[in-house]
Design brief:
single chain; about 325 residues; mitochondrion
Length: about 325
């Protein structure tokens, strides 16, 4: 029974991850908006070539007609505009950048967390009432999510970098060809420990997501069936899973923003990294862009988390039906 839970969860997670990958990529790009360490100098970008390299003294009269450009943090691009811009500048293929890393991540991270949650759920469920208290569901999610994240962190780092690569200037792009190439080059160029960069954030986020997502799905599903609102079918699965996705998005978005920035930062040999750690990244982000920066990308997060959770649990329920005799 234990192995069966891992197989069912793994299949459902890979299907859900691949089908919602473009939404996840848009979310990552939006979360990186406002970072100054990778954005070219806007003062030079917004000038014509003849002015960008003009070294003569500018007169006072001409200076009046050239107000300074707004800081990068002031520019905000929505999810739809972000998706269109990626499509126009990088092509439709770019929307699936890092999909190989997504497959590996779901295979390692989600398979582990779904399987462990299923095992704990079986052990902690009351055999007489066939129910498990909400507190135990949350505890099972925290444990399963933490272990799954530790296992899948290398694929998570590779996925973030591959998704974010297109926003960098051409000279700064890493141009990973696959998740294997990304992991191999990171190990050689930055050390094996770079594969677990931001792992504390990944673990914290995964614990929040798994506890809120899996526990709330089971709890809401039980409430719907217990109150006779709907029968155990597709409608119940969709309603419970979308509600669970919303809860997970609200709980995890701040940690997800910090995780994305820490994993994506480029560390040059002999130079100080942009962020000393998760707390430093959080403080710098809030100081430079305000507290709501921690909810950057929330619309694409819920837009992705909702469909992802729906596809995940609907697929899971169908896979369980197919494998019920095994």
């Amino acid at each position: 029974m234990g192995v069966k839970g891992f197989v069912e969860g793994g299949i459902a997670s890979i299907v859900a991850g691949c089908s919602t990958h473009p939404l996840d990529l848009i979310k990552v790009r939006m979360q990186l908006q406002g970072e100054t360490n990778v954005v070219p100098n806007p003062a030079v970008q917004n000038l014509r070539p003849a002015l960008a390299f003009h070294h003569h003294t500018t007169t006072a009269s001409s200076a009046i007609h050239m107000p300074p450009p707004p800081p990068p943090a002031a520019v905000r691009v929505g999810p739809l505009a972000t998706g269109i811009r990626i499509f126009q500048t990088e092509g439709v293929k770019a929307l699936f950048s890092g999909v190989s890393a997504t497959v590996l991540r779901q295979t390692l991270y989600s398979t582990t967390r779904m399987g462990l949650y299923d095992i704990l759920k079986q052990k902690w469920t009351d055999q007489e009432t066939k129910t498990m208290p909400l507190g135990r569901k949350i505890a099972a999610g925290l444990i399963a999510g933490g272990i799954g994240a530790a296992v899948g962190n290398p694929a998570d780092v590779a996925m973030v970098r591959m998704q974010a690569d297109g926003r960098l200037p051409v000279a700064q792009r890493r141009n990973y060809t696959s998740v294997v190439d990304a992991i191999t080059r990171m190990s050689k160029q930055e050390g094996v420990t770079s594969l677990w960069r931001g792992s504390s954030l990944t673990v914290n986020r995964a614990m929040l997501v798994t506890a809120s997502q899996l526990a709330s799905y089971d709890q809401i599903k039980e409430m719907i069936l217990g109150n006779g609102l709907m029968k155990d079918g597709l409608g119940t699965h969709v309603a419970a899973s979308f509600s669970a996705g919303f809860v997970a998005a609200v709980a995890s978005n701040p940690v997800d923003v910090i995780k994305t920035r820490v994993m994506n930062m480029k560390v040059e040999p002999g130079q100080k990294p942009p962020y000393a750690g998760a707390l430093d990244c959080a403080l710098k982000t809030v100081k430079a862009e305000g507290p709501m920066a921690l909810y950057k990308g929330f619309i694409p997060t819920i837009s992705r988390q909702g469909p992802f959770t729906v596809v995940l649990f609907v697929t899971l329920e169908q896979v369980r039906k197919l494998l019920k005799d095994f």
